[in-house]
Amino acid sequence: MISVEGLKVEFGIKPLFCDANFVINSRDRIALVGKNGAGKSTMLKILCGMQKPTAGVVAVPNDTTIGYLPQVMRLQDDTTVREETKKAFAGNMQMKEQLDDMNRLLAERTDYDSDEYMELVQKFTQEHERYMMMGAENYEAEIERTLCGLGFLRSDFDRPTCEFSGGWRMRIELAKILLQRPDVLLLDEPTNHLDIESIQWLEQFLAQAPGAVVLVSHDRAFINNVTNRTLEISCGKVVDYRVKYDEYVVLRNERREQQLRAYENQQKEIADMKDFIEKFRYKPTKAVQVQSRIKQLAKIVPIEIDEVDTSALRLKFAPCLRSGDYPVICDDVRKDYGVHTVFDHVTLTIKRGEKVAFVGKNGEGKSTLVKCIMGEIAHTGTLKIGHNVQIGYFAQNQAQMLDENITVFETIDNVAKGDIRMRINDILGAFMFGGEASDKKVKVLSGGERSRLAMIKLLLEPVNLLILDEPTNHLDMQSKDVLKEAVRAFDGTAIVVSHDREFLDGLVTKVYEFGGGCVKEHIGGIYDFLRERKISSLIQLENTNFPDLAKTNKAKESVISPLNAYNDSIYSKQKSNYAEHKEQQKKLRKAEKAVSESEARIERMEKRLKELDDILCIPENASNMDYISEYTVTKKNLDEEVEKWEKFSEELELLNN
């Protein structure tokens, strides 16, 4: 369908890539991979005709249509969802205008027997038949069907696009592309702003799409599920691997080993030639051999190898204080924006050391609850942050808070402590800031580079509760691996808001699903949750154990979502369980209070024992019986309190289970 020959792109002295040759066939599912800055987005722009190459040919048949989804969307903020989606039918609407013009001419003219009139009749007939064959008369129904399939409500159709989050705006662009039915679909980071449910829907759509697909994505699970071929841009070359991504990784490692051996052999050959030239340069009897070696040296084409893979680098978070047993406790937390209830009856307990995920559709309240935990926004209900909790927060706009007037290296050097300062260059290299890139000023970095720098900075700060809000959006696969290993080895507690299944797999042991104004707990990893999600109905999964909210939402159906309207039979079953649920929560709160008060008493006694230790270390106080007696009594009370705390903790654990 698309043939690429001798493609070359130059932005500076060194070409981005050159002599690229490949063909995109119908039904191909191609993953375009390579490190950041290799030219993946540039390649997509060239394929869709938005950018011209320095040299080479991109041959696209005249009847081939191309749909392009850019990484950065440009939607009109003064249009509604319906109006924006209608742009997909711009060609049909233009054809309709032409047909209307021809119809008007036919009505106005009276020279029925003339050749010109008969030609106009024939042209009108042909164009009208083509218009009807395209199904253009039904485009309104098609728009509604597609938008509803993508999760929009009919009440959303006339809302301005500016009211929607990035993930929903991405769906509007997807709807436009789907309605165009292109022969070739080009997608640049389509999963960056999509939730897990949307990504799964997109996977299913791409599996059924009749045309070819070329996509750029750092979501390993997504490209593994979608693609059957991999194009790698590396060292200025485009290498075609006709296998899925996982198989490509194995083949690429083998190829890199071969490259490395060839590079080492070539370097040895070059060194031998240079030694020979230097040794016999001034010997007349060796002049011919020396000149021959110089010519051979000039003809050698240097072998390039990929940059050293630093994804195996192991990073550790800076040491920090031990937090209390329960860093986050929510009891009947609720958040409203005007008449819209984001969530209600949120009751959850996150234990020290747990790694949990917040998942759900965009706009269901994941980031809102995070902001409540951070104390950035007000809420109703009880939200308690545990003892000694130090929060490290990576927000989606974290990159905007960096000092723009210092370099990348200085940004990290300012927060690094101890031995880690000796490894700053290794850490920066793992996150693609190796070599001269570490000397760049922050103000010249792109948005993605700033996000990576903010992530490195967070890695080095001493925290015991880590909150990551979409941390992988701008990280490539190597950087994600480094981050994942660091979070997995983190001694503290972690809350991860993410749509990246591969990143969450093996990292989290509990999933909190946000949906329908409720938050539901799922024990197990992300794939355990996904399996459960597929076999349960949407209403059961989103609304179980939250009858009060459902009743409220039923009255607000036009504001929130028809999914919140309960079936009467489901509601009657849940109502009987609600009293038990409230009683359980009452016992849980009582146990949590006992644990918390016990921890406070233990802390006071430990503090006093330390003070007495310091006092008794002074020679003149060593035999003071008052201090010795107080120390003995406090130590005994502390031991008794620790036993009580263990008992309270066991009771709390039983209630939680």
UniProtKB/TrEMBL annotation:
GO molecular function per UniProt: ATP binding
Domain ABC transporter intervals: 2-260, 328-541
Coiled coil: 571-655
SUPFAM superfamilies: P-loop containing nucleoside triphosphate hydrolases
Matches recorded under InterPro entries: AAA+_ATPase, ABC_tran_Xtn, ABC_transporter-like_ATP-bd, ABC_transporter-like_CS, ABCF_ATPase, P-loop_NTPase
Entry keywords, A to Z: ATP-binding, Coiled coil, Nucleotide-binding
Entry superkingdom: Bacteria
Name this polypeptide is given: ATP-binding cassette domain-containing protein
Species, as recorded: Xylanibacter rodentium
Organism lineage string: Bacteria, Pseudomonadati, Bacteroidota, Bacteroidia, Bacteroidales
